[in-house]
Each structure stands twice: as C-alpha cells, then as structure tokens.
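From: lab user (bench 3)
To: helpdesk
Subject: output format question, protein + adenosine-5'-triphosphate

Hello, I'm new to running complex predictions and I'm not sure whether the block I got back is the full result or only part of it. Here's what I submitted:
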Amino acid sequence: MEKEKGIIMLFKELNGRLREIKTITRPTADGRGTITFKTFMVEIPFSSDTQIDVGKLLLVETIRKGVYLILEITDYIPQHFGMINLDGTIPPELRNEIMRRIEETWNTNQAWIDVIATPVGYIMKEEDGKIEFKKGYVPPLPASKVKLFTSEALEKFIFYPEGTILGKSVNEEIDLKVNLLKAINYHIGVFAYTGSGKSNLTSLIVRRALNKYKDLKVVIIDVSMEYSILLLDELLSLNSRLVTLDRLPSNELDAGKRLLRTHVLPEELEDVRESIRKGFIKLYTEQKLRRLYIPPQGISYLSYGTLIEMIRSQIEDKYVSTSQKPLFMALLQSLDNLMRERKLTKDDIVDDTINPLLREAEEKAREAGVRDGSVIFTFLSSIKTYIQVKPSEVEEYDVESLAIEILDQDPSSPRLFVVETPNIDDARLVTHLLIENIYMRRKRAYSSLPVILFVLDEAQEFIPFETRQKDYTEQSSSSVEKLLRHGRKYHLHALISTQRLAYLNTNVLQQIHTYFVSTLPRPYDRQLISDTFGISDSLVDRTLNFDIGQWLLISFKAALKEDIPVMFKAENNVQELKENLKRYT
Ligand SMILES: Nc1ncnc2c1ncn2[C@@H]1O[C@H](COP(=O)(O)OP(=O)(O)OP(=O)(O)O)[C@@H](O)[C@H]1O
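Helpdesk reply: Thanks, we reran it on our side. This is the complete output you should expect:
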C-alpha cells in the first residue's frame, strides 16, 4: 500500500478537467499529403502562482480504467467569465467598467485558466500500483480529471538516471540526463536559426561525449572556424589534432598571433584572449597542428568500382568499334574473377596486382588482330601508366594519414580532430574523401572501434536539396548520405546542424533519431519537424519563443527512455571553457 502511494504521489491532482478536444488537419510540408493533430483544452482554477507551464506533462483519464493519455502543455490562457462576449459592440464606457471589475475579480470563481495541451503519442497504464508507459492513443474522457507529472516522475520515467547532463529541463529545473552514446549511435541533428546557440550545444555534446566514452573519437569539419576556440581546452587536454589547409606557422609566437587572427573570437571570450593565445601556442609546441595536403585533382586513387565504370563506358561508347567490345567484356570478366578470388570490393584501390590482367588483355587484343593505336591499347596503357606513378616520397599529411590516425585504436592516439576548411568547396571534397577512406578501411577491418562521430556544421552545404558535380556537392552528398544510412553498422555516426531545413536533402531526416530544435522562424522548417516526428505544430511552434540556449529535444528510441519531447536550457559551453582555460593564464 505504501509503495502504491509513492507511485501515485509522482502525479499530482490538478483540480482540472478536460473540456474540449479539437482536431486540426493541414497539408504536409512537402504538399504530398495531410497530417492531423489533436489539441486538448483543459480547464483549471485560476491562480497567479499556478504550477502549470509550457513543456510540463499532464495525464488525462481515458475511456479505459487505469489508462491515462499523456499530454504536453503548449500554452495556457487566463479566462474570465466577464470577458466572454465583451467585444466592440459594447459601448466603450461600459467596456471599461466591465474590465475594471474583471481586474478586481481574477481571484474569484469567475476566472479560470484554459490549458492547451497536445498528446505526445503515449499512454500510461496503472495496475496494482505498477506503472507502465506505452506508445499509443486511447480516447480521453471529456470532463474527466487531469493530473500533473511531477519533476520526480519526469526524472524517473523519462530521463536516464546515469545519463549525461546537458542542461536543466525548462520549468522543472531538474537536470536533463540523456543517453548520449545511444543518441550518437542513431545520429543527431541540431536545427536552429543563426545565433540560437547551435555551436554552443554542439561543443557541449562533443565535450561531454569525449569525456564519458573513452572509445569515442570526434571529427569536426569546421567551415566557420569556431571550434578550435570553443573546444580549445579539450584540444589541449586530450591528444588531438587541429588540421588546416593553410601553411603552418613557422614558430610559436607566429602560431599564437596567426591562430587568434584567423579565428572567430566570441564576444564573451574577449577577456580571456590572452589565455586563448597561450592555448594556441601550446597546441603548436605540442605538435598538434597539421597541414592537410589535398592532391590538386582531388581524388588520389583509382578504385575497382571506378575502373569497372570506365570499362563499362568503353563497352557502351558508340565510337568504340564493335570488334573491340568483346575484349573489353573479357577484361571485365577477368577483373570480376580477380575481385572474387581476392575478396576485393568496389571501394578497394587498384594497384599493380591487376598488371597480369592488363597484359593478358593486350595479348588477346593482338591475337584478335586489333590495330596498334586502337582504343583498347590506349586504354590499357593509360591504366598501366597510372599504376606505375608512385606517390611522392615527401611525407605529406594527407586524407589517408588523417583517416589512419582517426581509426587508430591506441588509447594514446588523437581523439579530437578539428578540420578547418573555410572554403566550402574544399570542405565538401575533404568530407567526401575522408568519409570514403574511413568507410573503406572500416569495412575491411576486423574491429569497429573506435566509435567515430563526424560533426558537420552548416549541413545544408554538404547534403543540399540539389547537388552538382562541379562544386563537389554530389560527392559530399553521396558520402554523407552513406554515412547516415549505413554508418551505424560500422560505428560511424554523424551530428549535423543547420539553420535551414528547407535547403537540406530532407530524405536523410528519417535516418536521424535525435533532434535538438530551437527557434526556426520559417513555418516550412517547423512543419517538416512536426511531419517527421508526428509532433503537433503547437509544440514545435513554442520554439519561436525560446531564449538563446533553450532547446526542444525530440528523440526516437535514443536519447531518452521514452520518446516524449522535452524542453531544456543547455549548459553554457563558453562558461565551462573559460573555467578550464584558467589553467593557461
Ligand atoms: N546555453 C547557453 N547558455 C548561455 N549562452 C548561450 C547558450 N547557448 C548559446 N549562448 C550564447 O549565444 C550566442 C550564440 O551562440 P552560438 O554561436 O552557439 O549560436 P549559433 O546558432 O551557432 O550561431 P551561428 O549560426 O551564427 O554560428 C553565443 O554568444 C553564446 O555564448
């Protein structure tokens, strides 16, 4: 009996009742269908210190005994009986008099509060003092009583007790504890208008994750030159790399000056400018800076997949004589045999193991009487020339070296990589080459450790709605899409952030299970979030009133125990950074 009482205490009687249920149907953001949301109106007695607030959860009785529907409050409006029908048809003097009286009688039984709430797709079952949460919907009983989730209930049923703290839940003031590894595992999206705190939250997630999970490595593709400052303390305390495409500084003084000049220093960090300069010098002296070499043509290797495509296009080319086509087909056949024998994949890089195959093809062409200088001879000799060209002897830190360091399982190897690529075309190319290289190596490796998280800011630049070959959007898009669709099996994950969902290839949204949403001014962007998660517009629209650093966390089987949207205020990454930088003053 005592136990039963304890559980019931987790939900507080509100003295409120469900009065109305409204249904709203609208076209989906892509215009291809419609979506319907339900809005509930709950009436509670008026009180100026009501416990009701936006983001809090309610339980309402349903048609089934012991089954409650869970609602989330999206708004609450004080109402007074005297105000109903008080409109412009009433003479002004009378209106004023009525309103004066209303003002005096808010705290009487003539007033109440209309609480607007929306179902979150969950029901709660209570049987013999046991409580169970289940996805679903059971029709609520109009006029039935309503209960309020207490902070304890939120902590007990929705947050992970051992989870990572990211901030405080709005209006409850309790720590938001999430399962960050699970969230990373199913990819994360951070969506908000510029200035809402995207980089702050991203840096916070990265530092929390790196400190909690020792098997995790993080690679940030930084187009806005922010993260080497926002995570400077982590770059200093962990083994790390600050990778740039620019010439490296020649000495430590130059390092301090140059790095400070080329990075965005947030206003709140002005007073620790000197510590940041010293931090940069330390990165230089600890040899954590690397200059990334990218070959001018971009792609530095020929894969079996590309070679197969090249042979195929010869077969399909109408200018290649019909007599040579069977020879190309035979080459394709022997290539296939070789790949089967050696268990090679399309992603593997072509090297001199294919030389005997090329020679055999040449011999066959001669036997068949193909003239010297014909397409097949030129084709074979150009492949041979390519294979013979040895990479330069100079030890360059290229995409391959970067990939090898990222995949290194040694616990003392670098764990945080900030790759600075302010030129967006370079950023796309580097992202494409890096993901492909890591993906290929991981596929062949026996281990899927370390877990790797790729962070892509301004994701719409990497996976845009429309792609083109010329600016590498096609390449980066296909690699990032591959990472989001198939990366999970290889422990390769992504955190993407953007301020405009409309410019993003929205097919990838389904692959992301955890969303952090703050103010998105465009209705289309907000509707897309509602559509993707089946969450009511009224809840997502609340983000319009969010302060900097406030977020709506929506997660599908990842960050939280139950998929109930939670509003929270994120901790301030800059504050933590400042605290840690004191060591470098
Ligand atoms: N949780 C928070 N607590 C306190 N201040 C915050 C919080 N989040 C962000 N800020 C402050 O708000 C400002 C903007 O944050 P931030 O740079 O992260 O936004 P953003 O969305 O990444 O902007 P942009 O798109 O312009 O890069 C910063 O000055 C930051 O310190």
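A quick orientation on your result: The radius of gyration is 30 Å. Let us know if anything else is unclear.
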